[in-house]
From TrEMBL:
<dbReference type="InterPro" id="IPR045845">
    <property type="entry name" value="BSK"/>
</dbReference>
<dbReference type="Pfam" id="PF25575">
    <property type="entry name" value="TPR_BSK1_C"/>
</dbReference>
<dbReference type="Pfam" id="PF07714">
    <property type="entry name" value="PK_Tyr_Ser-Thr"/>
</dbReference>
<keyword id="KW-0418">Kinase</keyword>
<dbReference type="GO" id="GO:0005886">
    <property type="term" value="C:plasma membrane"/>
</dbReference>
<feature type="domain" description="Protein kinase">
    <location>
        <begin position="57"/>
        <end position="311"/>
    </location>
</feature>
<dbReference type="InterPro" id="IPR000719">
    <property type="entry name" value="Prot_kinase_dom"/>
</dbReference>
<keyword id="KW-0519">Myristate</keyword>
<keyword id="KW-0547">Nucleotide-binding</keyword>
<dbReference type="InterPro" id="IPR001245">
    <property type="entry name" value="Ser-Thr/Tyr_kinase_cat_dom"/>
</dbReference>
<comment type="similarity">
    <text>Belongs to the protein kinase superfamily. Ser/Thr protein kinase family.</text>
</comment>
<keyword id="KW-0808">Transferase</keyword>
<dbReference type="GO" id="GO:0004674">
    <property type="term" value="F:protein serine/threonine kinase activity"/>
</dbReference>
<dbReference type="InterPro" id="IPR011990">
    <property type="entry name" value="TPR-like_helical_dom_sf"/>
</dbReference>
<keyword id="KW-1003">Cell membrane</keyword>
<dbReference type="GO" id="GO:0005524">
    <property type="term" value="F:ATP binding"/>
</dbReference>
<keyword id="KW-0067">ATP-binding</keyword>
Length: 489
């Protein structure tokens, strides 16, 4: 899996047990539009009981130190499975604002949404309760598939259902959606994609409208800091690029390829032969319209739905079949058995990571070094090797600024390729709080050595530092699985 993508996610909520359909209890009025119970206020005790006292074993998603809002899986007394989002004490200081926002979002009912079914406001506690989605996120199915990639017909269906969800929200006065991305799209018990209702809540005091990756942020948001209807369309465009490519590609890079009429380079190679050029071109054209720099030039949700309707394939095939979801229960996730390196990354213990990298040494470069042994050794090669040796000495002495300089000279020399040097410079960047550079090096180490667990461990540590805990957990899982497979050989 590791070689396919450098973007990570963890299942937003996942359970070994099959969730029952959310049916209203006998004493609760049934919503005419769905089988959901009428939106209600839960007591804190009810949600404590449902989540095992907010047990860490039931945590399925969390969002970093600056806004550590945690999502738990839970089960109500009638065996209904729920997802409970618990905010920090500072997130919603005004209980009235929180309650009003929750009630407004709770009025929405759609089979295209993972609907909000309740809330709790008790003292400083602020919690949202939503439908439970058992079949992972779009990010998981696009970027981290295990057996086979998502089919073309299913990708088209995801785009349509998501556009329909946004149109439903827009027509019901909730056009603004915060940080629309592949982690916000979830799959229900039938394999149908649903848009998470949590993104419909207006920003809380400590929240952000967009994730830390500015490459995917609408240009007008960078200028004004405000989310608009057109901003949501831009984010929908980035999601369409995800669906087309099977990767999380920055829009600027994708648009450059499209302008150069190289759009086929963007298409997921796993889809070769499964779509016509006309269909691919049409979907790419729609994504391009959504990604226009000027907000007023982007289409509205109604026209997007119309365009996508005409592109649908295999409409008679159920989503469960297209997604290859068995009729049995979703398989349970076994807890990760972390190695010392994994434990260090989880704790963001950079000193312990340094010790592990020192212990590993350069043994993972062995294959690459053997290939280079046939090259002609020039003065330039010797100078390049000297810079690496100087970098190693500085790294060993924890002189990380000097290590960065020396390793950069070695890398820029371009004579040799060493994943370990990228890994060591990555940690040196981490030690000096240059987080984006660190993430770039961790990803480059993966490119050079796709099955090297250390590259994924370092990505996990960097993502934890960036507050992107969902991505970090996925990277940590990948690293652990790769190391386990290697140890079994």
């Amino acid at each position: 899996m590791g070689a396919r993508c450098c973007k990570f996610s963890i299942c937003w909520w996942h359970s070994p047990l099959k969730p029952s359909l959310l049916q209203p209890s006998s004493d609760t009025e049934k919503d005419d539009k769905s089988a959901l119970p009428i939106f209600k206020e839960f007591s804190l005790e009810e949600l404590k009981d449902a989540t095992g006292g907010f047990s860490t074993d039931n945590i399925v998603s969390e969002h970093g130190e600056k806004a550590p809002n945690v999502v738990y899986k839970g089960r109500l007394p009638d065996d209904t499975w729920i997802a409970v989002k618990r905010f920090t004490k500072s997130a919603w200081p005004d209980s009235h604002q929180f309650t009003e926002e929750a009630r407004l979002v709770g009025k929405l009912r759609s089979e295209r949404l993972a609907n909000l079914i309740g809330f709790c406001s008790d003292g400083y506690e602020r919690l949202l309760v939503a439908e439970f989605m058992p079949h992972d996120t779009l990010a998981k199915h696009l970027f981290h598939w295990e057996s086979q990639p998502m089919k073309w017909a299913m990708r088209l269906r995801v785009a349509l259902y998501l556009a329909q969800a946004l149109e439903c929200c827009s027509s019901n006065g909730r056009a603004l959606y915060h940080d629309l991305n592949a982690y916000r799209v979830l799959f229900d018990q039938d394999g149908n994609p649903r848009l998470s209702c949590f993104g419909l809540m207006k920003n809380s005091r400590d929240g952000k409208s967009y994730s830390t990756n500015l490459a995917f942020t609408p240009p007008e948001y960078l200028r004004t800091g405000r989310v608009t209807q057109e901003s949501v369309i831009y984010s929908f465009g980035t999601l369409m690029l995800d669906l087309l490519s099977g990767k999380h590609i920055p829009p600027s890079h994708a648009l450059d390829l499209i302008r150069g009429k190289n759009f086929l380079m963007l298409m997921d190679s796993c889809l070769e032969g499964h779509f016509t050029n006309d269909d691919g071109t049409e979907l790419m054209r729609l994504a391009t319209r959504c990604l226009q720099y000027e907000a007023r030039e982007r289409p509205n949700t109604k026209s997007i739905v119309t365009a996508l309707m005409s592109l649908q394939k295999e409409t008679e095939v159920p989503s469960r079949e297209l997604m290859c979801i068995s009729n049995g229960d979703p398989k349970s996730s076994e807890p990760l058995l972390l190695t010392p390196m994994g434990e260090a990354c989880l704790r963001i213990d950079l000193t312990a990571i340094h010790e592990q990298l020192e212990k590993i040494g350069y043994k993972d470069d062995a294959g690459i070094a053997n290939e280079l042994s046939f090259q002609v050794w020039t003065d330039l090669m010797q100078e390049t090797l000297n810079s690496k040796k100087q970098g190693d000495s500085a790294f060993r002495a924890k002189d990380f600024a000097n290590a960065i300089d020396c390793y950069t000279q070695f890398i820029d020399g371009g004579t040799m390729v060493s994943p370990t040097v990228f890994a060591r410079r990555c940690l040196s960047y981490l030690m000096t709080d240059k987080l984006q550079q660190a993430l770039g090096d961790a990803m480059q180490a993966q490119v050079v050595s796709p099955d090297w667990s250390t590259a994924f461990y370092l990505q996990a540590a960097t993502l934890f530092k960036l507050g992107m805990d969902t991505d970090a957990q996925e990277a940590l899982e990948d690293a652990t699985n790769l190391e386990s497979k290697r140890n079994k050989k």
